[in-house]
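Sequence and fold
=================
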Amino acid sequence: MEIRLAKTAGFCFGVNRAVELTYNLLDEGHKVATLGPLIHNPQVVAELAARGIRAVDGPENVERGSVIIRSHGVTPAVRRAVEERELPLIDATCPHVARAQKAAAELARRCGCVVVVGEEGHPEVEGLVAYAREAGGEVFVVAAPGDLPASIEAPVGIVVQTTQTREA
């Protein structure tokens, strides 16, 4: 039997980075918790849990140890809450997500209105919305560019959830 591995098998860059960072911390003996599931992979999340990593809903659920920001990132308020608790913070946000967060804030400052193309309620989208709102922008979340409300007036900045396909 011949087994061939597909070219696209495995994690994307940002997810791979978050997983490696987390396993390295475990191997070094750190006690850590992740803010939400580290990634969208139940097998990996279960393996991390078996090794002692807890996925928590918020920083208030971490008594001690390091807090890992998952690959999807978090809102600025959640980041500040971790810092206020003076817990060690490890940022495993995908660099592409972090760039989109900065873009959402910048577009909000420049345009006043930001459209986030993405999945409503997804942790990454929640972060993008929060970064734009914190920068003073009005924000709309749409599933596809064609879903824009007619009431939006220019100028408008558009940022897209990093996992959206080109077809969306």
Summary: The beta strands are 32-35, 54-56, 66-69, 89-91, 113-117, 138-142, 157-160. The longest helix spans residues 95-111. The mean pLDDT is 89.
